[in-house]
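Late entry, evening session. Most of the bench is empty. Finally got around to the prediction I had been postponing all week. Sequence below, unchanged from the version circulated by S.P.
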Amino acid sequence: MTARVRRGRRRAVAWAAMGKKPNRAHRAAKQRARQAGSDFWAVHGTAETAEQVANALLAAALETAKGDDALAARFARELTLTPEVEGGVHLAGQRLIGHVFASGWLPADVDQAARRRVDDFAVEFLLDVQAAYLAPHAADTLDDTWRTQIGATGARLWWSPAQPHLAQWTAKHLLTPAEALTTVIQAFALLVQLPKLELIRPLPGTARRSTVTHVDDKALSRVRGLLAKAESTSFPEEAETLSAKAQELMTKYAIDRVLLEAPVDLPGARRIWLDTPYTDAKALLVEVVTRANRCRAIFAAEWGFTTIVGDEPDLDAVDLLITSLLVQATRAMIADSTAGDTHSRSRPFRKSFLLAYATRIGERLAEAAEATVAEAAEPGRLLPALASQQARIDKAFDVLFPAVAPKRTTIPSAAGWEAGRAAAERAHLKNH
């Protein structure tokens, strides 16, 4: 037995024990698989009951995740939509998604990862898997973040519970059984690849009534209005001035909260997924915004998301500002590229532009925040309170991410860096 086969068998057994008694039909299926160049059935045994089908699906997903892209289709052709197969798909899906959630992934994280790595059919299938998993949990046992994300992704129980989900899902998407099962295996292959993350929200069924304080709706509405104007204007200077005004309001609100409220909640955390390309440059923009607002951030480059840690009201405001500035930075980059030569439209130029833009905008946001703090009343109370808040956030960050190593980012285009710096310098960030 080869080392690869032994590893494959051990990983499959980790999910559940495999059946061992092939019947005549299954021996014929194994023979067909061998003729097609696959030794899957010879290694992994039978698929006669729902439990055995679930085990076989998990094993196929593991092999697909290793890079055998054709195995999913080969395996799917050996099955039909029998009650055992439909039951096995359900069992495997619930085991996998339960494991993924316990490993720190949230509904929005699974959805974002799926949209980047599998096709639309697999994305829709995974939404249904999540909806089925969450259905038994009462709403008041779900964390606010879970309820919000499930609503945002659109995961819901649309199918009749009296009939197997897989057959209804296959008919809804006009797929053949082989196409549907191929999609199922590809979706499962994504789930088995998801690494363990930090558990930043309570798992379904364990959440208690939330006492978390979020940013005041009126204050958030004012910030949102300024950022909407910043995104709609065609003048970069005006956009960045409006963004600075939003930063000023965010800082003033944070000062009032620090002085008036005793911290009763632990710092929170959330993930922000970044669109390609230039995710490392966009992650730097996230980093400088969080730093200007007394939060911490860490970038997961392989998957393209940044985790930010801070008090919930600050996270609410930071999330808004980051979303707006990413739009503004991309617009400034495209405008500069359109006005420049062919080199200004190259990937090195654009990446360097965004890195420089993020660096300088971060400096100016920090200046705006520091000026607001300096002008605040009661500095004797404020500065120690802010220092205490930062210490709490740093401690929470270190607990979640105890082994953080700094990452260097290269600047591939000097011209792009200079253009991005100039674009940020053109902003008038004085308070109005």
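Two things to note before I forget:
Residues 145 and 402 are 24 Å apart (CA to CA).
Residues 347-375 form the longest helix (29 residues).
Will write this up properly tomorrow.
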